Amino acid sequence: MTPTSPSAPRAPQGDPVRLARQVASALEPTESLRAIADLRKSLDALEILRVDAALQAGCSWRVIAEALGISRQAAHRKHAARAAAAAAPSQEAQPSSVAGNQLVIVGPARVAVVLARQEAAIVQSRRVGTDHLLSGLLREREGAAAAVLTGLGATLEKVRHCSQVSAEHERGDPETEDLTPPSWATPTRLPFSRRGHQALEQSLREAVRLGDDRLDVEHLLLALLRDPTSRAVGCLEHLRITPAMVEQELLSLRLRRSPAERPPLDTT
């Protein structure tokens, strides 16, 4: 059996289930150890996400510590400072107006962005890319974006797999390696990549173009379709879903919805 070369590329960090299978199936001891190291980092990132979700749900440090199997002091020491920093207002600019048009960002759109950050953190990306935004829209199941995407055959699992395959085959990642993360960035408050931020800005223009006074998930999805070289569009086309198909279904759904069916304004 030939020893593994030290210069052999390491498996990318990502889905813990895949990494656990890699640990179990690895034939070389060093390959298994590398997979264990990646699995540990992936689980650490997931723990951060789940602890923050538990805190937002109102769980006490005692309840969180019992679930983790550690003392309350250990849980507080490990997570309290980071959780407090993550709860602070972000310094990243997120404009809410275009050419003098004031827009209100509704709840589902806010949730989709939060979920996109979670998707990036799970795979330990340095920035939130367009593929993570696409996954966030799929995870936000109440809005028009998820309904259209799932109706065309897209699923969260398929998009995650496509995103992971793209990351493995690219030499460097133009969506996540464009800039060094700012000082305020944390695993639960990652900044957006250049293309990700452009998609957020484009979503405002989409809302204005459609004559809407609020920004919803449908505007985020339309914005993702405007960059034909983005990972989001690449994932959709890999699934044989073209931007034209998505836009047609999305606009058809808008026409079928009555104003009463639209989500209420969220001014918080």
Dominant shape: globular
Q: What is the H/E string?
A: HHHHEEEHHHHHEHHH
CATH architecture of the largest domain: Orthogonal Bundle
* Largest β-sheet summary: 2 strands, antiparallel
Q: How far is it from the N-terminal to the C-terminal residue, by CA?
A: 61 Å
CATH superfamily of the largest domain: Clp, N-terminal domain
Helix count, DSSP H or I runs of 4 or more residues: 12
Q: Approximately how much beta-strand content do the residues carry?
A: under 5%
Helix content: 55-70%
CATH topology of the largest domain: Double Clp-N motif
Give the tally of β-strands. 4
Query: What gyration radius follows from the Cα positions, in whole Å?
Result: 20 Å
CATH class of the largest domain: Mainly Alpha
Runs in which pLDDT lies below 50 for 5 or more consecutive residues are: 1-13, 88-93, 263-268
